[in-house]
Each structure stands twice: as C-alpha cells, then as structure tokens.
Amino acid sequence: MASPEFTFELRVCQWTEREWTPGTGRDGSDSAVLVARQLGIRERRWDTLVVECDPEGLAARAVFGTDRLDSDLLHVVRNAPKEWAYYREALPDPGYPWRYVREAIHTADDRGIVETRRAGNRIEIRRNWHYPDWVRRIVAIENKPDLDASAARALGDQLERDVALALADEVWVATAATGDSAERSSAGSRHSSCSGERVEPALFERLPVEVGILTVTPGGNGERTRVDTAWEPSSLAVDDPGTRIVDRPDGGPNDESAARFEYADPEWKRAKRLEIAERAYERGWRSYVDTMRTDCRQFELRDDGDTLPWCAAKGHSPTGRECSGSCPEFTPEPPQWRTRGWPIEGGPGKGLKRLLERQRQRQRDP
Ligand code: SF4
Fold first, then answer.
1. Cβ(94)–Cβ(75) under 8 Å?
2. Which residues, at least 6 apart from 208, have a Cβ–Cβ distance to it below 8 Å?
C-alpha cells in the first residue's frame, strides 16, 4: 500500500533542506539549517523539524561526534571545568542521584569528550572543548497532505497545545495545494492569502492564528516539490513560561469539566529544546534508512525530482513499517553481490546506506 503521508513528509523534508530561509542571528550572520523528522518530547512528536543554527557553533559542535548528547551528558559537558576539579564541586547539583552523573562522566570519557582522573578515591574531570551555543531557532512543521474537516479539528486542538507551550519558535502546517491557480495575495484576510485556491479556507479557520500554513505541490516526473507560504506564523515566546494543556472539556452539551493546565518553566523548555536539537543533529531526516530493508534486492532509491525509497516489487515508495523484516516479499541480496564488491563494496544495500549517511553528514557541516 502506498503511503502518501510518508512520501509527502520526505518531500517536505527535502524542500526544507533545500529552500528554508532562516532568520539571521543577532550578529546579522546567516543561519545554517538542520532538518529532522519525527522528533519532539514524550507527549508530542513533530513530523518535520528545522533547527536553525549558528554556523560557527554548529562547526564547534562537530568535535563532540555525530551521536547525540542526552540530558545527562549535556549536564556534564556543559559544566565540565577547564582545569581539573572534583566532579561534585565542578558540576551543579543535578537534582537526581550523583551516581547517574558518574555514569555520564564515564560515558563522556569513553567518547573522548571529557577527561577523567583519580585523585585518591575522588574522580576529577576537565573538559576537552567548550560546548558551543549552536541552536538559534527551532521550527516545527506538521505534515497533513489531506486536510479535511476532521483532520483540521484534531490538528487545531494539537496545535493550540503547541502554541500554549511555545517550545518551538514557530509552528507550521504543511498541506497539499490542490488548486491549479496559485494566485497569491500578501495582504488582506487569512482567506485571501491562501495560495492553493482549493484548500478550503474554512479549514484554516480551525487552526490557531499563530500557526503558519504552507501549501505543497508535491514533486514527481522530474519536478522538485514546490511550496508556497499561505499564512505567516507568529514567533512564539520560547523564553517565557509555557502552558501545558493537560486536559480540556470536549465541548459537548453535558461536559461540565474544567480544563487543566500545568506550568512549564523556561529552564525546562531550554533544556528540552537543546535535547531536541541534539537528537536532530544525530538523526537528520534520512534516518528512515536505518530501519528499512536496504539489503532487499527490491529496494531502490529513486529520484523523481525528490529522492524517495522505492520498492521495485510493489511499485511504490514503501513506509518504514512496510519495508521491514516482516515484509512477505523481502528478497535478500544474492551473496555474490556482496562478495564482488558491486557496485560499491558491501553490496548495493550497504552502498545506499553509506550514500545517505554521507548526505546526512554534509548537512552537519555548515
Ligand atoms: S522488504 Fe518488502 S517493501 Fe522493502 S524493498 Fe523488499 S519487497 Fe519492497
């Protein structure tokens, strides 16, 4: 079965990587862009994530390796002193048992990103490098190719939560532009600024006004995906306290329950934003290839304007779930493909993985 949502998402990621125009930093310099997919926090995952980075900071981040730094490692790496010091005196109280800090120190040492030594029965640490301030803005994009009334209602509720929490600097919805007229207006009401004429304006009214709208003309037949801005988003107050909407009345005539909210303090938001950026740095958007059966002889990467995974047996771009060990049509690469070093050492599947990994690495280089 084809998956329009999955391929739509990959197309949006490629457009974003190619065309996203980030804001400039405080010093007026351009930002570098990292794109990832399916990332967020425990209770919320965004389809496409754009991390706008300080280019020098991004280059400095590279010395810590391509694997992400999780919250425990960040605590160590960001606070490790320049000169040798007992770790309990050098690091701020983590708010959780120190034994986890010791574990993180040993992991950081194994990865070569801090140094440790024994002084009696004390562990001393010092940093190898200063951890840079590399993240400028985080932009979340929700992909919804078929924005019908019920999808808009469900999405509207979810996006209100995103706006209230303000963990991302901007939130967008990307939906398929089905109109062939792309008449645009930069002024006027929200209705008249929609570029895809057949994207029902009434549906947009169900989305929070702070959320931007992108109308997407998917690529194919040698054409790259094109995207128009139908509505500009508002910048969200990421440095202010956020509101977590825990529960809200469903609005039915018999529903007398009250909405429940929680406060999200700015420190928590700052930490989560950095953890999300670290995961984006590690994964990028090509991580789909890590779980797909690239070692199946039916697996291909096809360029129809955008690059997509392709199943020659099924004749469509498969999802990660479809293209897995449980696929009944999985056909392993013949062993001779791997031994003859054709076309790239290790067989075509490994070669495709390496190709995508090289492309992923290029995006980390500002
Ligand atoms: S594992 Fe299945 S879906 Fe994936 S390429 Fe092979 S036949 Fe196609």
1. yes
2. 156, 159, 160, 163
Distance, CA of 119 to CA of 98 (rounded, Å): 18
State how far Cα 6 lies from the chain centre: 14
Please name the amino acid found at residue 156. G
Which residue's CA is minimally distant from atom 8 of ligand 1? 311
Ligand 1 centroid–CA 9 distance in Å is 20
Which helix H or strand E contains 93, and what residues bound it?
A: none
Instruction: Give the nearest ligand 1 atom to 296 CA.
Output: 6
Distance CA 56, CA 31 (A): 9
Summarised one tens digit per residue, pLDDT across range 295-341 is 899 999 999 999 999 999 999 999 988 998 899 999 987 776 666 55
Residue 358 CA to ligand 1 center (angstroms) comes to: 23
| Single-letter amino acid code for the residue at 221 | N
Q: Which residues pair with 245 in a beta bridge?
A: 261
Question: Hey, whose CA ends up nearest to atom 6 of ligand 1?
Answer: 330
The model's pLDDT over 50-86, given as tens digits with 9 standing for 90+, comes to 999 999 999 999 999 999 999 999 999 999 999 999 9
Q: Does the beta carbon of 268 lie inside 6 Å of ligand 1?
A: no
- What is the rounded radius of gyration, in angstroms, for the C-alpha atoms of the chain? 23
Q: Which domains does the chain have, with CATH numbers?
A: 8-54+134-283 (no CATH), 68-127 (1.10.10), 288-364 (no CATH)
Could you tell me the distance, in angstroms and rounded to a whole number, from the CA of residue 288 to the centre of ligand 1? 14
